[in-house]
Amino acid sequence: MKNMSIPNLNIPDTIVKQRFGTGWVTWANIEWIRKLTQLPIICKGILSPINAELAIKYGANGIIVSNHGGRLIDTAPPAIQCLEDVINAVDGRAEVFVDTDIQSGTDVLKALAIGARAVLIGRSILYGLACGGQDGVRRVSDILKHELVYDMACCGLTSIDQINKDILYKH
Ligand SMILES: Cc1cc2nc3c(=O)[nH]c(=O)nc-3n(C[C@H](O)[C@H](O)[C@H](O)COP(=O)(O)O)c2cc1C
Prior knowledge:
Blueprint: H1 13-20, H2 27-36, E1 42-46, H3 49-57, E2 62-65, H4 79-90, E3 95-98, H5 105-114, E4 118-119, H6 123-154, H7 166-170
Parallel strand pairs: 1-2, 2-3, 3-4
């Protein structure tokens, strides 16, 4: 993967404009932002090794493996299924995070075990907010944390840094 060739992504402007309306979203945007700041740039919505490679090429320091909850393309592959290939492609050159359908502590545990640096959570937190405001958000967070700690205990793990791929196969 390190020596892979980068395909020519000269997508016609008309197609880009059709898809993104007034915006012109291309890899050149990342390159432009990279020139503006030394702050870490994290690219969200990466699902394939080739796009992970491109994100790094254009200056990303981190990648969020995400299908945006299926909000862009209904049949986009589940992020969790793409995570391992992206991690392997990145090969330590950037942080890799994941979101989409992280709905339980078990989901968090599995994502970390595959190798995600951290997970991000969208709708579950929003549901808590809708149901109970600040307390609802705290309750969702507490439930997820309780489930994660419980599942870690079931796997004989006492700290996050002990989580590794072995638990995916041994339990
Ligand atoms: C109401 C709503 C608005 C969202 N808007 C954006 C957005 O503007 N940009 C983006 O990258 N993702 C957006 N997302 C996707 C989320 O950031 C996240 O990738 C998605 O919800 C998957 O995580 P989840 O399964 O925990 O919700 C949105 C999601 C929801 C539910």
